Amino acid sequence: MELGYWLGRGVEAFQEWARTYGEFAAHPATAVDGAACEVAFEELTARLRGSYPFFHPCYAGQILKPPHPVAVAGYAAAMLVNSNNHALDGGPATSAMEEEVVEQLAEMAGFTAHLGHLTSSGTQANLEALFVARESRPGTGVAVSAEAHYTHARMCHLLGVPVFTVPVDARGRMDTGELERLLSTGVAGTVVATTGTTALGAVDPLHRIVPLARRYGVRVHADAAYGGFFRLLADEKADEKTDEKADGEQAPVAPETGDALRAIAQCDSVAIDPHKHGLQPYGCGAVLFGDPDVARFFRHDSPYTYFTSRRPHLGEISLECSRSGAAAAALWLTLKLLPLTPDGLGAVLAAGRRAAVRWAGLISASPYLDPYQPPELDIVTYYPAAPGSSPPRLSRVGVASKEMMHRGMNAKEDPVFLSVARVTAGAFTARHADAVADSDDTHVLRSVLMKPESELYLERLHQRVEQLAAESSPASRGCGR
């Protein structure tokens, strides 16, 4: 789509609507000098060139990519109105759009009933879910995996709720045996299961966690901020060992991952981020509750809002006050054109998933790279191979991984942007028993292939990363082990 055209259409539509209210004089206090604006805008665009190229598939680092042009156009069109979805007084049109997209997200999650709204971030979504958990199970703590996002410990500290960390297995997923030992003590009233950790893309076995939690009368919150949209691909059938469909095409997710994603429907609450895999600009998260009656925990009074309608206002079921109605409009327009179906938005995720599986295969066959663990979603982890048949030494793996990242991003020609993740010696040796643990931890390379363009660019990306790994090897620099 031609973004410039649709941005112009948005401005024209706003001006046409604004004229229906009659002419009025603009106040001179808001006037800016055209020449000065030209200079300032040139400086702005020049400074923005200091950003990393998140739009390009050569950027294979963090969880970053631009929003879809449809979302940009929708956001800009609604931003001219500048609705506030806290109350229908501030955003009657965009509040209705928010209710519609939340309904679609709830349907994707599998909730038969729901209460929910958009949020400004995944952190805020998780905070609200943990707030409801605290109110529902007072006097108890929250169980999270050792690989859970750091926001849970921070939000629990904010809420005054104790946190209990559950060890993970050799793939970075919550260990259900360890979880049961914790739940049997009665100290935890809520379990947070992560469907897509931001470090490794690991999916906790939610299909086993839910029945276990129910046995002990414990709530379950799914932190699906990263991996929640992969629910669109969870019904694809694949062979557990080969991760392939019957026709040979790489399957979007493995069967056990699909089981875990489908179990989101059985959770008490879920957080999901449209500004990750939902193609939205930042400022668009979401929280959903399976029991609409949790609205009682949000009840409050405001003497100057909530008067224009008897319908529930979104601010009455939220901890946040002011929220951009433009975020709801952007998501609404996006889902009109890329609906929450396997062949709609699901096709975008499937491309990244196929790229991750294929790259993992190329890495396994490479003399210069070794896989850290197989990708469960679209995050690929790997490290520079040791020379010859030598076992990997953690001290060298960490140095070489960071060196590859820095050399790649600072290359004057053909740069490539990677990221690293810090892992403990125990985590590394659990996956690679022959590794020499000569340090307490190390760093491995990590690439997020969340742009569908990564699938088309993969061979070039692999070639460039292999080149960096070859240049990092001791042999290439004429030195021994």
In short:
With 481 residues, the chain is an alpha/beta fold. The protein is built from 14 helices and 11 strands. The strands form 2 sheets. It has a 7-stranded mixed beta sheet, with helices on both faces. Strands 8-9-11-10 form a 4-stranded antiparallel beta sheet.
Helices and strands in order, then pairings?
Blueprint (H helix, E strand, L loop, with lengths): L2 H17 L14 H15 L20 H11 L12 H18 L5 E5 L2 H15 L4 E5 L5 H9 L3 E4 L9 H8 L4 E7 L11 H10 L3 E5 L31 H8 L6 E4 L12 E5 L35 H13 L7 H20 L4 E5 L5 E6 L9 H17 L8 E6 H7 L9 E8 L4 H20 L9
Folded structure, characterized:
By secondary structure, this protein is of the alpha/beta class. The chain has helices at 3-19, 34-48, 69-79, 92-109, 122-136, 151-159, 176-183, 206-215, 255-262, 325-337, 345-364, 394-410, 425-431, 453-472; strands at 115-119, 141-145, 163-166, 188-194, 219-223, 269-272, 285-289, 369-373, 379-384, 419-424, 441-448. The chain contains 14 helices and eleven strands. The strands form two sheets. A seven-stranded mixed β-sheet has the order 1-7-6-5-4-2-3, sandwiched between helices. A four-stranded antiparallel β-sheet has the order 8-9-11-10. Helix 6 links the parallel strand 2 (141-145) and strand 3. Helix 4 (92-109) packs across helix 10.
